[in-house]
Amino acid sequence: MECDKKYITIQQLEQHNKAGDLWVSINGKVYNVSDWSKYHPGGETPLLNLAGKDVTDAFTAYHPTTAWQYLNKFFTGYRLKDYEVSEVSKDYRNIIHEFTKAGMFENKGHTAVFTLTSVAAMFGFVFYGVLCCNSLWVHLCSAMVLGMAWIQSAYIGHDSGHYIVMSGHGWNKFVQLITGNCLTGISIAWWKWTHNAHHIACNSLDYDPDLQHIPVFAVSSRLFNSVTSSFYGRKLEFDYMARILISYQHWTFYPIMCVARVNLYIQTLLLLFSKRQVQDRTLNIMGIIVFWTWFPLLVSWLPNWSHRVMFVLTSFVVTSIQHVQFCLNHFSANVYVGPPNGNDWFEKQTNGTLDISCSPWMDWFFGGLQFQLEHHLFPRLPRCHLRQVAPLVRDLCNKHNLPYNSLSFWEANELTIRTLKMAAMEARDVNNSGVSKNLLWEAVTIHG
Questions:
Q1: Rounded to two decimals, what is the model's pTM?
Q2: Between 3.40.50.720, 3.40.50.2300, 2.30.40.10, 3.10.120.10, what CATH number should domain 6-84 receive?
Q3: DSSP characters for 333-348?
Q4: Distance CA 6, CA 73 (A)
Q5: What is the pLDDT of residues 186-228, one digit of tens each?
């Protein structure tokens, strides 16, 4: 009966917002997930970022209907007294309900099969070109194909990380380890750790790791205040070196993207051999060993060091296309400071995300992530449906006066460079940066 129900306020819920005392609300019911957070398949970070808040939209976006049955064991017996649902959240949940009824989350299409087949064919070409030919041009062509194979492998790794490639959890994990760790050398554990936090805290300067690139890049002058990263647990220092590098970031962006893959290798190793809790650490390390066995052996088969250096650099340069794309989706969108708020899930995703418009025949090239907003709103939706649902998302944005940002690849590049240049110019301004001038600064920027 209604009189037997126990209630707490939103303010009381917000007090349970830390590890060991972590409560959340879903559909107005309050759950204690303090102990469960350590075993959460998506990692502890997403729960910590939304601790003490209503997480209905985020939970609905990330979990199938079968997950709801497991909530009862975490129920505290409390409900939110002042629980309300915004009109945009109502529409958003209705859309997810319609997708579920239509079976769209389970219908994965044949994209993964086609992509895996093409990846296998590309790797076959690469090995043939390196092992059976001596021509420099064949080796360079093989390197370009290897770069493209890495790009497509990363897309499959991304999709399997969201469990939208195979039907079973175990098979998805198998695909994650093969396409991520074994083929690309990038740990799926590292990817899930950062990517889940990115989705939950999309474009928060202090909570989203995908925007925390100081001292190399800064998308907003608010990072010049040396904000503390909630994700990494350390201060993002805007010091002399950061100021110099960021002042020229609109020039260094593309060159750095050409070798950005090296940073991903480093981040993978730092996580796997850290003291952090890492799911499937042993399997991830074994997968990385596979990569660092076959790739050096392949490169060593090339006839001389000039071929080897050009082969590696060429393959990295090709993958820079994907690194650039990831930046285009968010670098020039709106940013904010502070934790995400579960009550404005839809609004935060639309404000912090940019789509790349392209013809349907180019969907394979962008791996479905040209529909970045659609993916952020429906991360469980297989990529074969993203183009189909894009008009629905656009209509919902128009209905609630929210931005639906979609630009061509070229236009998105222009906007990203303008954003980086704007922050670079502000970094040069001592009054905005708060970092005093010195002789080194004057020498480097005198002609800047």
A1: 0.90
A2: 3.10.120.10
A3: S--B-S---GGGHHHH
A4: 17
A5: 999 999 899 999 999 999 999 999 999 999 999 999 999 889 9
